[in-house]
Amino acid sequence: MNDNTQKSELEKLRLQRDAKFDEIVCCLARELCLSCATAADLEHLIEEAEELTDKWAAAEADNRSPELSGALQILLSEHQNICKQILRLIDSGKSDE
Q: According to the model, what pLDDT value does residue 41 have?
């Protein structure tokens, strides 16, 4: 892989990660019945999603992979898998970013 291809792959993964995070925020809004979220509601949902993704990553790092029992858990797992791909790409030295 050349440098441009590697950077392109990293950017693609980052866009996928961000899109998955947006899906998590939307899922939280649905679960909390916030169809018309205010700016304050949206800020709270983003903070909650950040906390959930951090907790999911910590659980996996401790080999305590949570059970996939609902839409939110599936999204969190998918988000974590994308994050792992990004880290592998960076750690492998395939990207300078």
A: 85
Nearest to 70 by CA among 56, 87, 83, 60: 56
Domain that holds residue 77: 3-32+40-52+67-91
- For residue 14, being part of any structural domain is answered with yes
Q: For the purposes of burial, counting CB atoms within 10 Å of the CB of 64, is it exposed (0-12), middle (13-18) or buried (19 or more)? A: exposed
- Tokens 């949570």 appear where? 66
- Tokens 């839409």, located at residue: 71
Q: Give the number of domains in the chain.
A: 1
Tell me: pLDDT of 86 over 90.
Answer: yes
In a domain, 23, yes or no: yes
pTM of the model: 0.83
In 3D space, the residue among 2, 7, 4 whose CA is nearest the CA of residue 89 turns out to be 7
